[in-house]
Amino acid sequence: MVSNQKLFTVGTFDFRLQHLLVIGVLVLAVSIGMLIRSGPSSYGFELFEFDPFFNFRATEYILDNGTDAYFNWIDEKTWHPFGRNVSETSQVTLHLTAAFLYPIFNFGSSLYNFTILFPLVIGSLTAIVVFAFVRVLGGTTAGLFAALIFSVSVPIFSRGLIGWFKSEPLGLFFAFIAMYLFVSGIKFNKGKISLIKLIIAGLFLSLGLSAWGGILFFVIPIVLFYFSLPFFKNKDNFIMWAAPSFSTSVILFSLVFERTTTFIIGYAGLALLLPTIFIIIAGIVMKFSSERAKIRNCAIVLISFVTSGIGIASSGIIGLPSFRYLNAVNPFLTTQDTLTDSVAEHMTTSLSLSFTFLSVFLIFSVIGIWFLFSKKTINLKTDMRIFAICSSIVAIYISSAFIRLELFASVGIIILGSIGLTILTQKIFEQNKQNFTKIIFPAVIIILFIIPMTMPENNNWLTWADFTPSILNGGSSFTNFSSNDWKDATLWLKQNTPEDAIIASWWDYGYWITTLSERTTLADNATLIDWQIKKIGYALITTPENSWHILKSHYTEDVSQYIGQENIKLWGMIKDPTLEMTFDKSCKQIFKKEAQELGVPERSCHPILQGMDADYVVIYIAGERFYSENSNVPFYTLEGGGDESKKTWFTAISNHPVSKMIENDNITPTPYYMENSTLGLLTPFSIYKYVEPSTGRAFDVYQNGLIPVYVNDLKFKDPESDPFYLVYASPSFYSQQQGAMSAVLIYKINHDYNPQN
């Protein structure tokens, strides 16, 4: 065949035309990935979303202070006054990898610009690793199809866009390397080479897990694969040392990092150890069993191990994972925690959204799963077939839990779809007389790839990369709007507030404020202390008097009377209705930094009861400005994705009655909210009229189907008589241009305010 034509020789390796084709397809896949992922750069060269700003700051800390200082870093700029143990609660591998690569590949760029490009490059290059992984499962053609599908997969590239300096791109890169080495080591059984591959696979899986906790997913198909191995790969002792080698490697390397240690000495370690021990015992049992009794005896051992695992998990000996991990395993699990529900990434996946993401690849996947279950139509090795089935089905199942995990559905689709396309292609081109089909088939496949990328015009796959970096649109619903409001506001904080100023804001904006303004915040996107976030939500929704006491009071002062025992018990998860939490003045608090220096345990004295010690409050309002005919007075519609759109969640999280604050459309604020809640009064707008969209008629009182129209109305502005007063509003607030508004408002907490009670 022409594809086998030798082009040149390097040593003992003959470089053939087919190798050139493979390189060409991989270059194409990487190039497509880079082009798609670079979409947000057309709006501005910035980090994307929220977490990347902390990851940039942590990487900068390593470069400035070294790794030893990093592993002992208690960040006192966050979660005031408690601080944060960074290496214990962060994606350590991401920070270390970026800090290691920056001096080598910075090419004169700043660290900020390097971290913007990092996910673009790593995410795009992962297509090559995916090729290697799927090639072992289904052959070279399947690997090439997998690389191409990976490069255009919406759930994957949308979580690896330029500027997305978060956990997923590097985590997936390491995880796919681990999977390639694992399946390669198991498949080929080459003694020492397989042993080395399996040990290195364990290293990369632990690195991936340290980079992103979601990599725990890959443990599940490995566990299922382990349980199936003795039934079909039992002719020698290979699996009896191969599986323990990999599992031991994962466990030992995971113990290097604090965060992965908590996984591996808990449920993840148990999940790996039980099937590993099963493989060893099953191997021994089968060795001493007759040929007829081997499978039966192995099945008995399997049942006993599964029963033991369920018993250990139910006993409480091993701690259960957090809700989001449990929800991934059991998509039908529901939470009563409104804080968890309020996170957009935790929204349940819908069928329409799944189809939008996966589209025509579902067809290829159905073909793939059909071929994999067929005994006569394919020549894949049984172990690789089973691993492909386990990985794909588990991936698709887990993705049904919430939107963020749609990424794993893509992993399953990549495996099934690439194998399905490969076998279908082989069968078509094996036909001797179907020349027309051979010509039309590649054209059909190319068209099927192109259609979802270009159609429909406003909701095709490419539009999922056409986003403004969040720092430029405030994370609002105006995805193509760009302004410097947040950058200007954080710069103002940096230049006009004391270095030790404490900033109160909703947790969404914590990383931006800490990184860009270098000021201390009460909460951020790490969401480490649930009750602290709920306390901020309560301060935003309760009356200004209560908010003033809670926010301005020092963290050694008792503010329980302004919070209420019901909320204190709820946030502290106290179930005894007769028990009251009281303030203990004699208790000496020891926060993380001091505890580390003294070598003693951290100690808090009922911090839920105490003040938050804040100096400023930052709120963010997004909406649209417009003008009526023959009028120069601007009108506004809000609900653009800022704090005004989160008031329903603030209300529910802070245990206020939602119906008191929000109308029955679950969007429009009630008059009580506008006139009595802190956020309502901090919002420098008031409702002018309620308008019927279809007719334009205006009403003074809310009715179903009406939308509120606002006018400017700054309520808190007096530094002498108001509990809060405006000290800064970003340019978008003062602009008179029609269109999107993205206003960052900074209020100073008036410590000289004289409350009425």
UniProtKB/TrEMBL annotation:
**Segments forming domain STT3/PglB/AglB core:** 502-562
* Phylogenetic placement of the source organism: Archaea, Nitrososphaerota
Q: What is its main location?
A: membrane
- EC assignment: the record states 2.4.99.21
Q: Which Gene3D superfamilies match?
A: 3.40.50.12610
**Origin: domain of life:** Archaea
Organism this protein belongs to: Candidatus Nitrosopelagicus brevis
Q: What protein does this entry describe?
A: dolichyl-phosphooligosaccharide-protein glycotransferase
- What GO CC annotations are associated with the protein? endomembrane system; membrane
The record's top EC class is: transferase
InterPro entries in alphabetical order? Oligo_trans_STT3 (IPR003674), STT3-PglB_core (IPR048999), STT3_N (IPR048307)
Q: Which reaction does it catalyse?
A: an archaeal dolichyl phosphooligosaccharide + [protein]-L-asparagine = an archaeal dolichyl phosphate + a glycoprotein with the oligosaccharide chain attached by N-beta-D-glycosyl linkage to a protein L-asparagine
Looking at the keywords, is Endoplasmic reticulum present?
no
